[in-house]
Amino acid sequence: NNPLTYSITTTGDGDASVDIVGNVTYIPDNDVSVAILLTVNATSSDSSTVSCNTAITITNNSPLITCPANIVLVEGASVTSPPADVTDPDPCDSHVYSLVSVLPAPLGAVSINRATGTVTFKADSADARDEIETDYVVCISVSDGIDSDNCCITFTVLPYIPPCPDSSSISHCDVLQYFAFEIESNPEGQP
């Protein structure tokens, strides 16, 4: 019995190794999806060599993203969404999140945490356009380095309405409510 030594070559870009008893390990690069050939050579102490070729097809499964529920906030406020939910049949894949689009463009700021997929929406004091609630559709993407998936979350910005003080005297809120009633009931301004 001649002791054997093993060596390995590969056509792939990953890391291939063979241990002293011939067990093969191949770790593909995260950014490949290809067919490769592994060649294991067993060489005895008398220099005779036997080779074994194995073809492997490495595939990537796409991640699937689900956005959290839509969010409502008041203009001038800031809110951060829960993280997006990602499922990926490839347990070793790492994921990176990015913003795809924000429509319409808000006056405030929108950002994403590239590691968790949480979206922060900082509404400007004028993001409730024309003082009516305004929907901003924020689309995000998750990538595993090869494939990606998108989803969208809606941030609804409501106009800020200052609270009326609790008072028995006539306040600015009473005056504003009176004028709003008068304008609504008499839009032409007739006496």
Helical proportion, percent range: under 10%
What is the topology, as strand order, of the major beta sheet?
Answer: 7-14-13-10
Report the span from N to C terminus. 116 Å
- Summarize model confidence as the mean pLDDT: 85
Number of distinct helices: 1
Poorly predicted residue ranges: 175-186
Q: What is the overall silhouette?
A: rod-shaped
List the helices and strands and how they pair.
Blueprint: E1 4-10, E2 15-18, E3 24-27, E4 35-44, E5 49-57, E6 64-66, E7 71-74, E8 78-80, E9 85-87, E10 96-103, E11 109-112, E12 119-122, E13 134-143, E14 148-158, H1 172-185
Parallel strand pairs: 7-14
Antiparallel strand pairs: 1-4, 2-3, 4-5, 6-9, 8-12, 10-13, 11-12, 13-14
